[in-house]
Structure formats: structure tokens, C-alpha cells
Amino acid sequence: MTESYMTRDGLEKLKKELTNLKQVKIKCSADIAEAREKGDLKENAEYHAAKEKLGEIMGRISRVQDSIASARMIEDIEIKEGEVQIGVKVSLQEIKSKMKMDWILVGGVESDPTSGKISVDSPLAQGLLGHKVGEEVTVALPAGSKTFKILKTEAAV
Question: Which domains, from first to last, does the chain contain?
Fold first, then answer.
């Protein structure tokens, strides 16, 4: 099992999601039992829909449990000053456009680009990891290579 890097807040959110999913599973199981009582299962759309939903819920429960079991807290990682690594907010400037941007590097479970959080497994983060403030780094991105200057890093968690 590979480690899932996350913050303590992220772990708590997953635990709450798991509790909620287990409640939904109970409801879904009751829906299946109720639909089963209606007779012929071959043509019972409610039964088949409930079975499909239960399968999706069970899959999500399994993934959430795996993430919780393999959780490694980002807060426990030693942050190296001036270096791009997980748990760090990195300020960049794209060289060609001069556009500045800030990203917080997190584990995949907490990735949310709309709130400025990207997974350390993303192409951008992979290209930046281990580099230091002041360096110019060319990163292979899906839309083509871009060069960034690392302006600043700071602990984000």
C-alpha cells in the first residue's frame, strides 16, 4: 500500500466522509431489501438502480478506507527552507508571460486547483519538487513545456 500524504484536516474530512458513506450504505441496503420484496427482480428497475448505487458506494468506501489506512501526515514532514516539497506554498513566475502564481503542494486526496492546491503527483509539482528558490525550472506540461522561476517557498501547513 502506498502512502497517502495529507493534512490532519484532510484526514478528518475523509473520516467524516467514511461515516457518511456507511450511513448511505445502510439506507441503500434497505432500499434493495424493499425493492426485492416487490417481486420479479429481472424487471425491477428500483432494485437494479439500488444495487448499482450500492456498488458505487462500496467502491468509494474501499478507496476512502485505503486512504485513511495509508495516511501520512504532511505536518510531520520536515520542511527544508527554500526548497519545493510537499506541504509547501510555492510562488512562481512563468518566464515567458511573466504571470505569477502560488500553489500549495498537497497529496492527491486533497488536491483542489480551484483553491490553489495541487497534487505532488501533478506534472507541474513533479517538475518543481526538490528545486530551490531562485532557480529557473523547465517543466513538461500537457500543453507543452514552460519555464518557471521559483520566487518563494513557505510552509503551508
Answer: 4-74 (1.10.287.180), 77-155 (3.10.50.30)
